[in-house]
């Protein structure tokens, strides 16, 4: 099993190298075909034909930060659920175990609702 | 938190033409907006001062390429007022017919632009497909598809072909069926309702205060249609009720324009029924003195031409009042507090035509 | 013309033999040293030559060939076809013919092959009667030649790194997607069957890297549109990962595995759901009433992960010009833009493996082919290969994507996030509960 | 006839005959008055608040060589009549009160008149050029601003020398 | 014969150590996050060498996919002066 695991991931490692080389190689290859003629006006940041005012790399009031936090929490919770689901055995399922999962999902559900409610308050 | 100004335009997919909407955003919420126009200014009012009255019709045709007849029509009305003449009845009916055809074509162009604004490119192709029919009709009667140069001071350029009425009725019947498809494409889509209902609200008070006219004003519940209030040409003879919606949001503006297309179909059919025989044009005088103005219900709102003559064969001063010029500066009111993505849903529903706005 | 060809052959032949001679020089030198020192052959060289001829290198070369085949299969073959399907399909929805440039539009081909009496007939067609299949190739070639503009204010290093991350993570999806029982890269054979215990999880992991690249691309361009577009894209992609993961958990409760091969094997059997047995229906999970919610949610999330139209707000060309790809030009734009279709392709494959029976299909007839491994033996191969059925499913799912995408407007970003968190997440939690209830509490 | 007559009567009653250089009913539902620039704001305020003139259709600036005129077209939606006000401005001192405090819609039209004719509207919150570039030095609609050709008219007779 | 596993381990840990150093030394915060992501991905690879496949994949899903994005979102909310070199305009 152990050697099999790495044998299974050898194509993945090689493929990852290929996948990295594919865009890099394409970008390099275009260098020989295309003709670059940069001008200061062309290299200006695109702002619909106007001279850009101010910079984009500023403190940006991004209103979806809460979603990012919930996302991380949910990601971890979903991994727990995945482990549970992978080892789910219908023949050995007990009512206590089932109740535990229902409780877990209910807590997740309630927590999301609370967070989203809070988010609506914090929003803007 | 840092607020930043974003330029939307002049080279931006949202601006159908050359203008710039500067938006101040805080994150994704719009704090303020400021239209910046003039990229297409061609000095119409100055140019018109050195051309004869009749020749300016060609110029006014090019004010807005999607509704050229309504513009030259308004100019001709103002000049007729100045010269104290009136078009003969048949000419008046022909003007009504071409005006309404042009209005449908213009609204279809708006619909075609509104779809891609919301990410629905299919609507563009469908609406342009239907617009072709009306361009064909206009070509049949005027000979051109885009800058028809059809109205004249004192009437219209030529009579309509004998079989025009037949084709017209056929196409309108076909169009009525197609319009149902369009409504299904837009209104039955939950996403379209999510994007437009409650977005870009403007109250009737504010709309009137900012000089908003046309379908945008009627979407706020004001029953104000110049075809009814200040009737010109053959409109007093026709039976119709202006279209009104009450919400004042993007969906209401959409709804008003869709209903107006149906109304225009009705008007064309009525005008075809009642069109009298006779001359279609009188000869206008070459010179004129005094001042006069006329306003018409353009497809985008209240269009006004104010013409001053000083006894020469050229106008001394011409003033063009474009509805979009006023409407667009009411957009910041509609935008404040909405999301960045709503800009397109709002600006698209206002129906901007840069040519007539920048003169 | 012909003289030129012969000349070219002469030159290339001479060049090739010269290069070969140059390459052989070091070995000649080693041989010469070895002969001078009196030994028969230097030790390291023996090992090297043995290694050259040994099974390790052969396996490596075979693997590289296989990887190349998979890469070409995904990018050159399927990518071109689904781009063509999309363009033709939405043209049909819009009452027009769409791209129609054909081979006959290429002047050289029309003048050469087109002159051949019967064979050249397709090349003589006027340009508006072609299928337009080569249009995407032409677009690619055009992008290849385009200038790459790097904005002056951009963070150059990150600006050029970000598309590599996005492209590499997108390509990495395809290492874990098997195309049939025999056409796969990642996995091993146990008891004569291919297995890859955590294949689906690997696909999800590859999906989850892209938001980082998109966010960095949007930031590095130092442009307001790209910054907002990148943030939206990241927020949307990660928001929709959660329902996808949760729905796959609901599926796992029924299937008990994350192995794509095992999943397809289970779905090949006749339909059985507890006491219900239907012999003529395959056991696809889409037929399982307890997984219907999960199927719908996964379908929606895949559309969002592939940034297709109802959820293509990150790009949102109407208000953010081109979203986070605004500043990219030339082939960098081509890569980040074209690989969105690859993500849709991978998503369609994922749906197909999870719910629609993967590559299983009816076997109409088989024919015997000799077994390479064991000489003299024959084994049966179906006339319509499994790859055909898999590709068919992928294309059909993709057609549904196109159908949905071109008949609805775009959803606003806060609405997208609300749909994701307030609708899809509760629905997927519900679907986990349903699955667990059905499997655990009801039948046991 | 009722609306126009009543409007004129109430205006005269409020401001007196001498305020108006010219009054008249041009056509149905259209009243024309000519006033001096100092009375403009008071008259408009009266029109808006007492006579329900809600809508400012447009502001036109006219260069009469010896004087400027700022022409206002006002519409009452609710009572359906129009008022045209010609306010005279001396040529050497082109200033007039802004109507933005009464109608926000006046803002763009006054900016346009400032841009093209150079009339300064006092009290305008943001009197900038609107159509022309910000650094443009002229007001092109004035009569002294030269047009490229005096008369854009080439007859067939002039080209072909006859016929 | 060189052990392929050892080679992989050396390469991965070299990348990891180098990225970890870059996390600390890079000037712009967004670069730091990028290098952090690189570090976390290579740690995933090292987990794989320990035959912990599930942990490796979870490492990539949670730490390489979610955490850097969270950090980036947080950084976008920070004041500009922390984010890069001091700039006089604000």
Question: How would you characterize this protein structure?
Answer:
- The complex is a heteropentamer of chains A (124), B (359), C (444), D (163) and E (90).
- Chain A has 124 residues and is an all-alpha fold.
- Chain A has one domain: Methane Monooxygenase Hydroxylase, Chain G, domain 1.
- Chain A has 3 helices and no strands.
- With 359 residues, chain B is an alpha+beta fold.
- Helix content of chain B is 48%, strand content 14%.
- Chain B is built from 15 helices and 8 strands.
- Chain B has helices at 44-48, 56-61, 68-83, 89-117, 121-142, 164-187, 190-196, 204-209, 215-218, 226-229, 250-274, 323-327, 331-335, 342-350, 354-358; strands spanning 4-8, 20-26, 29-36, 151-152, 155-156, 289-298, 301-310, 315-321.
- In chain B, the strands form 3 sheets. A 3-stranded antiparallel sheet of chain B has the order 1-2-3. A 3-stranded antiparallel sheet of chain B has the order 6-7-8.
- The mean pLDDT of chain B is 87.
- In chain C, the strands form 3 sheets. Chain C has a two-stranded antiparallel sheet with strand order 1-2. Chain C has a two-stranded antiparallel sheet with strand order 3-4. Chain C has a two-stranded antiparallel sheet with strand order 5-6.
- The radius of gyration of chain C is 27 Å and the shape is globular.
- Chain C starts with a helix and ends with a helix.
- Chain E has 90 residues and is mainly alpha-helical.
- The radius of gyration of chain E is 16 Å and the shape is flat.
- Chains in contact: A-B, A-C, A-E, B-C, B-D, C-E.
- Chains A and B meet through loops of A and β1 of B.
Structural class of chain A: mainly alpha
Number of domains of chain A: 1
CATH class of chain A: Mainly Alpha
In round numbers, the mean pLDDT of chain A is 76
- In CATH, the topology of chain A is named Methane Monooxygenase Hydroxylase, Chain G, domain 1
Q: Using the coordinates above, name the CATH class of chain B.
A: Mainly Alpha
Tell me the CATH topology of chain B. Cytochrome-c3 Hydrogenase, chain B
Residue share in β-strands of chain B? 5-15%
Low-confidence parts of chain A? none
Q: How far is the first residue's CA from the last residue's CA of chain A?
A: 53 Å
SS element count, helices of chain B:
15
Number of domains of chain B: 1
Helix content of chain A: 55-70%
Question: Which chains have the largest interface?
Answer: A-C, 66 and 84 residues
Radius of gyration of chain B: 20 Å
CATH superfamily of chain B: Cytochrome-c3 Hydrogenase, chain B
Strand order of the largest sheet of chain B: 1-2-3
Determine the oligomeric state from the structure: heteropentamer
CATH superfamily label of chain A: NADH:ubiquinone/plastoquinone oxidoreductase, chain 3
What is the ordering of alpha helices and beta strands of chain A? HHH
Helix-strand blueprint:
The complex is a heteropentamer of chains A (124), B (359), C (444), D (163) and E (90).
Chain C: H1 2-37, H2 43-53, H3 55-93, H4 107-112, H5 134-145, H6 156-176, E1 188-190, E2 193-195, H7 199-220, H8 224-255, H9 260-268, E3 270-273, E4 276-282, H10 292-305, H11 330-355, E5 366-370, E6 378-382, H12 386-405, H13 413-442
Antiparallel strand pairs in C: 1-2, 3-4, 5-6
Helix pairs in contact in C: 3-11, 3-12, 5-11, 6-7, 6-11, 7-8, 8-10, 8-13, 10-11, 10-13, 11-12
Chain D: H1 2-15, E1 20-27, E2 30-36, H2 40-50, E3 55-63, E4 67-76, E5 81-90, E6 95-97, H3 106-117, E7 120-122, H4 156-160
Parallel strand pairs in D: 2-5, 6-7
Antiparallel strand pairs in D: 1-2, 3-4, 4-5
Chain E: H1 4-25, H2 29-49, H3 53-76, H4 80-83
